[in-house]
Amino acid sequence: SMVPKHPVPNHVPMEVLLERVPEVLLPFCLGRYGLFQKQLTLLEEAEGGFDQFTRSYESFGAHRLSDNSMLFREWAPAAEAVFLTGDFNGWDKFSHPYKKKQFGKWELQLPPKEDNSPAVAHNSKLKVVVHTKGGERLYRISPWATYVTKPSTSVIYDWIFWDPPHPYVRKHPRPRKPCSLRIYEAHVGIASPECKVASYSNFTHNVLPRIKDLGYNCIQLMAIMEHAYYASFGYQVTSFFSASSRYGTPEELKELIDVAHSLGIMVLLDVVHSHASKNTEDGLNHFDGSDSCFFHGGARGEHPVWDSRLFNYSSWEVLRFLLSNLRWWIDEYGFDGFRFDGVTSMLYHHHGVGSGFSGNYAEYFGLHVDEDSLVYLMLANHILHMLYQDCITIAEDVSGMPTLCRPVQEGGCGFDYRLAMAIPDKWIQVRALKGGSIIITHTTNVPCALVGDKTLAFWLMDKDMYTNMSALIPMNPVIDRGVQLHKMIRLLTHGLGGEGYLNFMGNEFGHPEWLDFPRVGNSESYHYARRQFNLVDTDHLRYWQLYVFDRDMNRTEAKYGWLAAAPAYVSTKHEGDKVIIFERGDVVFVFNFHPTNSYSSYRVAVGTPGKYRIKLDSDDLEYGGHGRLDHNTDFFTEPIPFNERANSMQVDPDRPHLYTPKVTSVWD
To answer: Do strands 579-584 and 569-574 pair parallel, antiparallel, or not at all (unpaired)?
Structure first.
């Protein structure tokens, strides 16, 4: 049927759009929406609806059908001929040719064997043999391959036909999208204290319980899409439909996600659609022998810094491939959404290289914007949110593109969140703690991560962490300062950073040192490609104190919901006193960052009158503080206007020489 399966939405009424979008941006928003609407209409008309189009993983690649016959389909427009070879035919290169179809597609059907078993058995090896017009014979992995492995004796991955006799069956429903998003960003391979590549099963049994205990309600998994080079951190993807085999099998990843769901935790995939590895034999590059196929030809198809290939988002078959890839990870594995990597590179023809972003609209609207990739992102968000009500999408964009998180119907890209990379960078820059600079960064970004070369804790305490983290000895000044600041930085980011909070695994307990994957430059060492959970499990070390603070910070947010509240009202950012005070929801945050000064009867502006009590205190002994505050003290507001608020109260942010925030909330 040529009848659209989903109606193509109109943009919001003009009078509503004028209320939500600056008038100067209206032509651009309407223009972008027009391009999106045109592409979606074409998709609906030509493919019978985006639901069918984005389930192309059901027909491309290799499939066993209900009668045990097999279907193989590829898109290789520049190929002269295509063959299938593998274990099933003794690696005969010519016995099983594909038939050429329209629009560069190739198809092969195999009947069952005489015993009615499929012609290609589960766990057997396959290759696509591509003959080019120039006479070359190329051995390729299907772009739609769902499982690839690397033999210990080779550097090239093998395509494995994955069709287990007893596939994993999900047992638990997906959690609903939370009002407050608290994300634990994790890498399966480094999720162990041991110097090795950790497994999906290890993560399921040893890491998921920690995440649940900490109070995170969402996990963002990195480096899942198969990547030949481990040290690329998963960002040089070679097989887009394959879960990385270095951690285990697809069924073990499905179990991981299902168990997370049983704990009420959503799971997001760090999806890389901004570029692809240059690998040819086990990647997408030159799949059909041409320079283009999935990518732009020539210089436009090469990233100037990443040494990788760039997708041609105007290509119909590339849209099929990428949009179906998103559906695949949700439908097959149970992922609940995506963090889109490299969105800045996608949005601009210059890919953000050598370009600064000051906030001037001219930097975001004009011929330098790649409208093809912009429309792809609009399509992706629209389709995901139409098909999956609780799907979460996050854009990793450092440019600050306006309307990125506005609905598609307003001419926006439709993302739910933007990852605010400026926040962790700012913390490294402002270790001198200039309050105004901190406030500006936090109130203009959504959500945040604390990830870097050295860990946050190691930036603060460095080599002293090797000898002075025992709770059985007094803290020296470096550890004292670092432990208190580490808690305050996390809490200030949590309260002021935006509508969500993201923590990279290990930061919750002040992981020491840095992250570095095995490579030639470090003699292939795994020493820094691990997370030392054994440190937090040793209760006489101060890592446990930092862990417990992170846990209670998340649990306090779960109770009072400041992440879901309106943006904070900052009433005090006193550079001389080094004091920051703000309200968010029904919570008042009071921070004293001064290294030597303590204050008594410090006046705090509040909007809501009443009685307040301390609910979270970083100076608590349990968190490695000094226990100087009485949690049974009641703080009463007075109708004394202060700092543009109708009410105020006096508190004692006492700190003779330590960094101790005091957080109070409405007494219920």
So the answer is: antiparallel
Element (H, E) at 242: strand 239-243
Please spell the DSSP secondary structure of 618-659, one letter per residue. Answer: TTSGGGTS---S-TT--EE-BS--BTTBSEEEEE----SSS-
Helices (H), 292-434: 316-333, 343-347, 371-387, 422-429
Alpha helices of 246-285 — where are they, by DSSP H? 250-262
307 is an active site residue:
no
Query: Quick one: tokens of 294?
Result: 């999935």
* φ/ψ (deg, to 5) at 373: -70, -35
Mean pLDDT, range 6-17, rounded to an integer: 71
Tokens for 450?
């604390």
Pairing of strands 602-606, 611-617: unpaired
Decide if 278 contacts 307 (C-beta within 8 A). yes
Q: How far apart are CA 314 and CA 319, in angstroms?
A: 8
Q: Which residues contact 107 (CB under 8 A, 6 or more apart)?
A: 71, 72, 73, 98, 99, 101
- Lookup: tokens for 593: 């960052």
Dump pLDDT digits (tens) for 442-493.
Answer: 443 333 344 447 899 999 999 999 999 999 999 999 999 999 999 999 999 9
CA–CA gap between residue 412 and residue 374 (Å, rounded): 9
Which one of the listed residues 158, 226, 282, 396 is annotated catalytic?
396
Q: Using the 8-state DSSP alphabet, how is residue 350 labeled? A: T
396: annotated active-site residue: yes
Cα separation, 448 vs 458, in Å, equals 19
For the chain, the farthest-separated pair of C-alpha atoms sits apart, in whole angstroms, at: 90
Q: Name which of 37-46, 442-451, 477-486, 656-665 the model is least confident about.
A: 656-665
Dist. CA 83–CA 93, nearest whole Å = 7
42: three-class secondary structure by DSSP: helix
CB-based contacts of 568: which residues, under 8 Å, 6+ apart?
A: 443, 495, 496, 562, 582, 583, 584, 589
Amino acid at 477: P
Among residues 226, 317, 341, 617, which one is catalytic?
341
In angstroms, the CA 552 to CA 616 distance is 8
For residues 208 and 218, is the Cβ–Cβ distance under 8 A?
Answer: no
DSSP conformation class of 337: E
Check pLDDT > 50 for residue 279. Answer: yes
Distance in angstroms (rounded) separating the CA atoms of residues 653 and 635 = 12
Using DSSP bridges, classify how beta strands 500-504 and 181-187 pair: parallel, antiparallel or unpaired.
Answer: parallel
Residues whose CB is less than 8 angstroms from the CB of residue 302 and which lie 6 or more positions away in sequence, other chains included: 308, 309, 310
| Cβ–Cβ < 8 Å for 199, 214 | no
